[in-house]
Every structure is written in structure tokens, then in C-alpha cells.
Amino acid sequence: MRAVSNIADRGDTDVFPFPIENHVFHDEPDEVVGLLEAISQDIDGSLNRLPLTSYSSLASVGYTGYRWATQIDPLWNAYLLSLVISLAPAIEAARIDPSEQTVFSYRYQAGPDAGLFNTDGWRAFQDRCFELANQHALIICVDVADFYSRIYHHRLENALQEVDYSSFARTKEIIKLLGRLSGGTSYGLPVGGNAARLLAELVLNRVDHLLMAEGFEGKFCRYADDYRFFVNDLQSAHRCIGMLSEKLMRNEGFSLQKAKTRIMTSAEYQLVTEPHQHAEPGSAGKFLGLRLHFDPYSLTAVEDYERMMAQIAEFDVLGLLRDEITKGRIHINLTRKLVSALQYMDATSRVQAVISLLENIDTLAPITPQVMLAVRHCLDDLNDSETAGRITETVRKLIDDEHYLAKNDLNLAYMIRVLASGQSRENERMLIRLYGSTHGYGGQSAPNIQRDILLAMAKWNVRYWLSSRKPSFNTDHVWVRRAFRVANYALGDEGKHWRKANPPESQSLDSIIQNWAAKRSSNSRWSIPI
After folding, report:
1. 3-state secondary structure of 438
2. N or C, which end of the chain is more exposed by having fewer CB within 10 Å?
3. How far from 145 is each of 96, 211, 219, 416, CA to CA, in Å?
């Protein structure tokens, strides 16, 4: 149940737009949990009956780099996460204790009402590194190269067996699912989901313990694949780089990113990483220290929201955002946080900010998904149809001009969500054209984009096009077929006849989704969430 509720409340990845199945998980958790329990009784049969599908896309890293991110079929993503959560307490117990102030990333939290991980890990990492930098002359910053994509399954399997006390049954299932996701290769974790995060931490756990045992206690910190060492002379600095390189390669088959390996003086490090508690009030550094996460399901949701709004009010968010844009190259973490804060501002300020964001989209290229989310949030609350039309026209132009940002299918998926916010003849025609187009650089149609276009057409009751999609149902991607099981309710009697001729398989997510759609569509005020 915790895996299902976590996905329903917080999403399946931090990369892709959330699929409609997340709403089903939220509304029908018992049905979904029952299906997952049935899968656990016959994993091989379930894999044959309910194939494990996924879609991978390029996600921007900086201005010119990419990483490979993967969205897993929602059902199997929930099953994989449930397996990992069942081992999470043992994984956390095997890691270096948080009191050592050494490993800060994705520290597991027990309890059904909590998020899976401590949300203060990154800030605590930054603060501890700044503290140690004050005590040492030199700081070494290193990253593991291609970390997630180079994790070897057999090494992960060995690490899992050390914490799996169920005759390795869960370990075998996890490795089986990862093998399917990697196309039969024996390495790689899907980037973006919580299951992969905790598994990745387990992989590096052995190296962490080796470093502690060999005299680095209190002299290094790690967050995910980012290591920082603190020493007082150049010889020790090179020893750190050599020892870590040797341990990573010998134990896990990893290497360090040469371009990101740096030796800095304490003064240099403090200059570029000033933590929030030492920053000036109202400054960018101080804003970076804000915790903007808001949980509407918290028992103290009202108080938390008011406290967060009071903190945001201390800053000139638009001014800080303008300063970043005028630099030409943004501070990515700061600008991402400033953009996410726009949803808590008044409507007039949000509109001004959104227009400015779109006018400077090239400068904001590394955070295009976050920009499009901010645009979508603005449009959802905007009552000015003329302004909304200008905003969506700008997004359509990016797509029409084949702007390099729109050529990336992950960015395009977020742009589709912007266009889906409001019906117009121009939006309708563009989405129909995009449905049959290729997306991204791979020369194929992205199933997540086709799914969202189908749902937008149903939300707008574009019956002539929805009716034309019926003949291709059996050859469509499974995600598109599920979307049509929701969308067909817009066809009235035509949809009713179609459902009678195309019933979903029993004990499947398709069946749960169609029953969910049937209940929701009986309410005339219900609108398909997209």
C-alpha cells in the first residue's frame, strides 16, 4: 500500500509528466494493491500476461548534455517500488548511520504517512560540506561517471542478498524486472523513480564503508554520486582521488567524471557554495535554503502552507528570476526553485513571470520542463482568454518552428500539457497533427505523448477524431489503449458499443482504469485530468 500511496501523492518520477494512472492509484488504492498482490503470487505468469513496458527519453543536463531517463509502466513501477520498500528498512540499517554526517542522499523514512525519504538531505549535505570546508585547506569534488546506467545487476544482486532475508525471493524478482527494463543487458537502473534511488544507494554502500574503515571518517561526504573530500595538503588530495577511483573500479566497475573532478581551496569552495544560513536576507543564497515542498495531505497542511507563504514573501522572486535570466547562463538549481515558487504568487505576477520565461526560453533551456509546468499552473488559474491565447500561441510556435527544445520529446511532453490546458481550434489541430508524428530524435512516436493527446481530445469532446482512433486500438501502445478506455466515454452510445465489443482483461490495470472512468464519467461535472 505504501508504494501505491507514495506514487499517488508524489508521482512516479521527477522527470516525466505524471500519467493518468496516478489518479487511479489515488482514487482506487485497494483495487491496485489487490492486483499487485495477485502479481506477487505468479511473477512469471504475470509478466507474460501483463507485459512490462517502459519508455526512455533524453533529459537535459545543463545546456548541451543529456542523460537517459525512463518511465516504467505504472503497474510494474508500483510493483518494483513495493519490492524495494519491503527491503528498505534493512537497506537503511546497512548504510552508514546518519549521525556520522557522511552519507546524506535518500535516507529512508519509515511510517505510512511519511514520504519515503528525508527531504532535508541535500541541504544537510551542503551545510556539512561548508562546515568541513572551514576546517580544511582543500576540498576535492568528484562525480561518478554515468552512474545509473553503469550499475551492474550482478553486483546489485550481491548487495541485495545481504539485506534480503526471504530466501532471496525479492532479490530475484527485482533483478528479473531490471533485466526486462534493460532489454536483457546486465547493467543499468531506470533514472527517475524512487526504487532506483534506493537501489543505487545500496550499490555505493560498500564503498562508503570501505572509505570509513580506511581512515576517511569525518573527512568525506556523499550525496548520490557526488563525493566531496576534505584534506589539508595536495598529496592527500591526490590520494583521495586515487583511492576512490580504485575502490569504485575494483568493487563496482565505476569511474570518475574527469571533467568534474576538481581540487579547490577552502576559500574557493566557500565562495561558490555559500550556504543559506550565511547568506544575506532576501538574497539568492538565502532563497536556495528555503524548503518549498508542500504536502496537502499533511495533518498540519494549513499551517505549513501559511508558513511557506510567509517565507516566500520575504523575497523578490521576480527580481531574483530576472537577475538569473540576464546572466545568459542560469544557476540551474536556483532558477528551478524560483520557477517552482511562481505557483504561490498572485495571478498578475505569475502572468508577467510566465511571459518573461517564454521570451527567454533559450536561456532557460536546462529547466524547460519546470518552465512548462509553471506555464500550465498559470493557465489553469487564468481567466483572461486573450492572455491565455497569446501564451499558448508562443508554445505552439516553438513546436511549429521545430525549435531544438521542442524536438526533445521530454520537453514536448510538457508542452503538450500546456496546450491541453485550454481548447482552441489551433490547439486541437496541432495536437492531432502531433499524434501521428515522430517525437524526439529516435524517429518514432512517443507513447506518453500519444496518450496525453488522446486524453486531451476526450476532455474537449473531439468526437470526430476519437471515433477515427477505434480501428487502431489493438495495435496501439498499451499506454495509449488504457487512455482510450478512459477517452471512449466521450463518444456516448458509440463508446458504449465499443466497450461491449472490447472488454478489458480481468485482473488487469486496464480493468481497474475502465471501471474508474465509468464511475467518474457518470458525474457531468467531472473532467479528465491531464
Report:
1. coil
2. N
3. 23, 19, 22, 32
Q: Do you know the residue count of the chain?
A: 530
Give pLDDT tens digits for 317-364. 899 999 999 988 998 988 999 999 898 888 888 899 999 999 999 999
| pLDDT tens-digit map of 378-416 | 998 888 889 999 999 999 999 999 999 999 999 999 999
Q: Identify which of 202, 223, 180 has the alpha carbon closest to the alpha carbon of residue 80.
A: 180
Write the secondary structure of 384-432 as one string of H (helix), E (strand) and C (coil).
CHHHHHHHHHHHHHHHHCCCHHHHCHHHHHHHHHHHCCCCCHHHHHHHH
With helix as H, strand as E and coil as C, how does 194-243 read? HHHHHHHHHHHHHHHHHHHHHHHCCCEEEECCEEEEEECCHHHHHHHHHH
Tell me the sheet residues that pair with 444: 439
Burial profile 52-87: b = 16 or more Cβ within 10 angstroms, e = fewer: bbbbbbbbbeeeeeebebbbbbbbbbbbbbbbbbeb
Do the beta carbons of residue 466 and residue 457 sit within 8 Å? yes
| Strand locations in 14-98 (E) | 54-61, 65-72
Whole-angstrom Cα distance, residue 106 to residue 104? 7
Measured distance CA(198)–CA(307) in Å, rounded = 31
Q: pLDDT digit string (tens) for 90-142? A: 999 999 999 999 999 999 988 766 688 988 898 899 999 999 999 999 999 99
Distance separating alpha carbons of residues 266 and 132, to the nearest angstrom:
9
The 10 Å Cβ neighbour count of residue 150 is: 15
AA letter at 223: Y
The pLDDT value recorded for residue 112 is 66
Distance CA 131, CA 274 (A): 10
Whole-angstrom distance between the N-terminal and C-terminal Cα of the chain? 24
Collapsing DSSP to helix, strand or coil, 71 comes out as strand
Q: Is residue 38 within 8 Å of 30, Cβ to Cβ?
A: no
Check residue 148 and report its DSSP letter. G
> What predicted TM-score, i.e. pTM, was given to this entire model?
0.92
